């Protein structure tokens, strides 16, 4: 049974329209298992500004001191996740909000504590927990937070969490929803890009800012066995498909 992982970014409520839920229902009717990973950057920045806190972004990652970490946890677990979970429940899905504290779902390590503070990277995903939930036809809705082996919470880029979850579950598809319909090169929206071509796009500065960690995570997912990654603004549109080219090279 195939697994599809969807990472929601931007303003979460903008993604949750009738077409979104119809697609989830279609996938389930086809026997697919669905996992949602949500971001919350828009809401976190909004709350920080309301509280008079400065927002610092470095290479697409939020510099996270102790205060920022507390705001991030508060917003993700107290605002964004309940919003998404409630909408799924209202549509009749068996949705379940999860975080790093759910049986050590997301274990993490510091990425660069000196420069980024409490920003982490995923070291391990509790694949067994997700498998049990998926077999019971639940839709896990996962917040992008991790916990170290010492019990320290970490702010982790949602794209990385989605990619690591997709890798752990050997997903057949990973959708990275963003506020643009794909990767743009000059005046053209690219429909297909190999993992090997991503490095060239980065070197040419075709992609910058928040797209950088997104593409780095997507490359890792493809190399770890995820069949295809789609960068798009809607799950009913494939946007830019990223694929691993190794099999094509063997056939050549």
Molecular structure report:
This protein is an alpha/beta fold. The protein has one domain (3-251): Carbamate kinase, CATH 3.40.1160. The protein is built from ten helices and 16 strands. The strands form four sheets. The chain has an eight-stranded mixed β-sheet with strand order 5-8-2-1-11-15-16-14, with helices on both faces. Strands 6-7-10-9 form a four-stranded mixed β-sheet. It has a two-stranded antiparallel ribbon with strand order 3-4. Strand 9 and strand 10 form a beta hairpin. Helix 3 packs across helix 4. The two termini are 31 Å apart.
Keywords:
single chain, globular, ATP binding, EC 2.7.2.8, kinase, 16 strands, amino-acid biosynthesis, four-stranded mixed sheet, Carbamate kinase, disordered C terminus, 252 residues, 10 helices, alpha/beta, acetylglutamate kinase activity, eight-stranded mixed sheet
Overview in brief:
The chain is of the alpha/beta class.
**Biggest sheet: strand arrangement:** 5-8-2-1-11-15-16-14
Q: In oligomeric terms, what are we looking at?
A: single chain
Count of helical regions: 10
Under the CATH scheme, which architecture would be assigned?
Answer: 3-Layer(aba) Sandwich
Amount of helix: 40-55%
Q: Please, what is the CATH homologous superfamily?
A: Acetylglutamate kinase-like
Give, in order, the helices and strands. EHHEHEEHEEHEHEEEHEEEEHHEEH
Number of strands: 16
Q: Identify the overall geometry.
A: globular
Decide which structural class fits the backbone.
alpha/beta
Strand content: 25-35%
